[in-house]
Automatic annotation (TrEMBL):
SUPFAM superfamilies xrefs: Serine protease inhibitors
Domain of life: Eukaryota
Pfam families linked: C8 (PF08742), TIL (PF01826), VWD (PF00094)
Matches recorded under InterPro entries: LDrepeatLR_classA_rpt, Mucin_vWF_Thrombospondin_sf, Ser_inhib-like_sf, TIL_dom, VWF/SSPO/ZAN-like_Cys-rich_dom, VWF_type-D
Cysteines engaged in disulfide bonds, as pairs: C389-C404
Record's keyword annotation contains NADP: no
Key word Disulfide bond present: yes
Protein name: VWFD domain-containing protein
PROSITE patterns: LDLRA_2 (PS50068), VWFD (PS51233)
Organism: Stichopus japonicus
Domain VWFD: 2-175
Amino acid sequence: MKTCRAWGDPHYETFDGKIYDFQGDCRYVLAEDDCGTGSSSFKIIVENVPCGAGGAACTKAIKFSIQGFDIQMVGGAETSVQNSGGAEIDPRTIFQIRSVGIYEVIETTLGITLQWNRGTSIYLSLDPSYSGKVCGLCGNFNGQGTDDFTTRQGDLEFAANVFGHSWRVDQCVMPLGPVNPCDINPERKKWAEFSCGIIKQGIFSQCHSAVSGARKVLHRLCDYVLACERGGNCDCLCTAIAAYTKQCSENGVSIKWRSDGTCGLQCEEGKVYTECGSSCENSCYVEGDKDFGCQETCIEGCFCPPGQVEYEGRCISREVCPCSVDGVLVAGGDVFIRDCQTCFCLPGGKYDCFGSTCTAMEEEDNCQCEEGFLSCGSCNGCFSIEERCDGTVQCANGRDEEFCNCQFNNDIKKDSSEQRKMLYQRGFSLSKYGDNGSFV
């Protein structure tokens, strides 16, 4: 996969490696695949706003439209998903959203991965199948950085501000071309050069051979962003260094650079900091979910220690993970009925079921019961699905009470929202599609 980067005030590196500065204060198309074709599978819009003491621009919000769904990511707020296109499919079959380290990560089955630290850094990675088929601030991904400044109108531009402005979504004023802030604030130049000089020496020297070309560019950008912040905002320094060390990590060189306290991170909920954690972090329901589309890369931040997994923001042993059953969380050790089978939630978040499914029961008998009813077998009548394992025999052959190896009684609650209902024992909590609740 190829990655487009945006960081700092904001600085951009296209898929094809072209680096430029564009301080537009508006909403812009970062990347899309509707480039004059009239059809689109995805579009990513970024909203840049002034931030920091010196008025630097950073990304406040991202709108990721994909296959009829709009994913809204806003700094300081929960990520939301809207079905804007009337899609009739489950969005979880297209994408998943996870918090990994210091990033919010969106992974898709379409070869698109987005990472955002909810402020100053965005990383968009595309599968090679998108080569030459995309456009926007990230360029056209055709392997030639010389034509990355192709405007929305199809013209090749040479000025970054004109190119960037052509990809605006709203009406806004074209920003001025980049001006070296060291020329405007000469008193800040020495301090900026000294602060960013750490990239040239010490622990960073081990990365020079891996990212030799990027080192000079990133050092220049570090000077730029620091000089722009008249008060010497540490966020600018940390953003510039983080952008460099991320490239180091992606090239196999991990640097422990936050230990001096200037850019330290405080971890909570039993997590520990690592500069190169897995982007496919394990959780109760995701074991490095590479099958979904997770691309294994380094991500810095706070992670669960070895032997533990994340569950609802905290670290626990995998053995105590609840089971995820059709979007419902079932506590470990609980017994439930799913599709007429008796199921057990086992340690580690897995569950086993036995007995015949509803469909199999009907097919075995070659008899049809009305919707909401199941066959007693051999065409000897039907019983309501709600009477399955209720402790009272409805069928002469006792089929409605088979494989009910737990004490089912009137305390059992039924999820009436599903055509083929699941039964639960009293007292455990559930969480379905983001809505929390409990059975009592």
